[in-house]
Design brief:
single chain; 2 domains; globular; mainly alpha; 3% strand; two-stranded antiparallel ribbon; 10 helices; 283 residues
Length: 283
């Protein structure tokens, strides 16, 4: 039998988990309301809202990499161009806009009076556009598909339920480290919990509230999203560890910045779009 001390430790851990989870939910409520509004509106409202969100994310990245002197203006202009190209065009126009980001970054960078470390600045700028801009452009492509509003909600539900379940599963019974050199607190048990919970949450919401979604398609898409979400989380953890940064920003107070909250979404939005097209959703 467990000793009295062990029981006290377990009770304290459960109280801490409930308190932390409650704080996470409260902090997320404004963001949830914002997401529901822009997804429901769609169109140019959705695009401009994501431009604003993306600009905040890029600002966090540029602040973390300020020693490289990123080309801020080119990054923000490129971000807007990528999202507008996705909305008014298709994948071809998105690729064209991405290609144009290279000369755009050059033209802005070459006008600087000080050009020390310009190669690093250009590299960081284009990295941000690939990581943040292309991902959010795919969110626009996904929203513009048939039943796009519902698909975006499904992806967000699968992503955030999976992330929360992974956190709780890891705190409750996590034993085996997943990637100790990148993110020491993540465990294999938390990963499995998050994948199962995220995939099932996607599937349950899709088949329960969306009569246009086939159950098999929802299962395929749900588990694809749930599998990719942790990769996005680890990706950002790797970047922050390399830059010796704990949180990317303070937009969400103690719960970090935009990059911290959307790291998984930057991967699941892309996955969600291509899997949705693969199972038959058209523009």
């Amino acid at each position: 039998m467990a000793s009295r001390q062990e029981r006290r430790v377990r009770r304290a851990r459960r109280r801490s988990q409930r308190s932390d989870l409650g704080a996470r939910i409260v902090a997320a409520l404004p963001a949830i309301a914002f997401a529901l509004f822009i997804v429901a509106e769609g169109g140019i409202v959705f695009v401009l809202a994501l431009v604003a969100v993306g600009a905040l994310a890029l600002a966090e990245l540029y602040r973390m990499t300020e020693r490289a002197r990123p080309v801020h203006l080119a990054g923000y202009l490129g971000l807007a161009g990528l999202l507008l190209a996705a909305h008014y065009g298709d994948q071809y126009q998105l690729l064209l806009a991405l290609a144009l980001c290279v000369p755009l970054t050059f033209l802005v960078a070459v006008r600087r009076r000080r050009r020390e470390h310009v190669a690093y600045g250009v590299a960081v700028t284009l990295f941000g556009l690939l990581w943040v801009g292309v991902a959010l452009a795919h969110a626009v492509l996904l929203r513009d598909l048939e039943h796009g509003g519902g698909l975006v909600l499904d992806v967000l539900i699968g992503t955030f339920v999976g992330d929360t379940a992974a956190y709780l599963g890891g705190r409750s019974w996590g034993r085996r480290p997943l990637a100790p050199t990148i993110s020491p607190n993540k465990t294999l048990e938390g990963l499995v919990t998050g994948i199962v919970a995220g995939g099932l949450a996607f599937w349950l919401f899709a088949v329960g509230y969306q009569d246009w979604f086939k159950g098999t398609d929802a299962l395929i898409m749900g588990f694809s999203v749930a599998l990719v979400g942790p990769v996005g989380d680890l990706f950002e953890s790797l970047i922050k560890r390399d830059l010796h940064v704990k949180d990317s920003g303070t937009v969400f107070g103690a719960h970090g910045g935009v990059l911290d909250r959307l790291d998984a979404v930057f991967f699941t939005a892309v996955t969600g779009y291509y899997v949705a097209r693969a199972v038959g959703f058209g523009a």
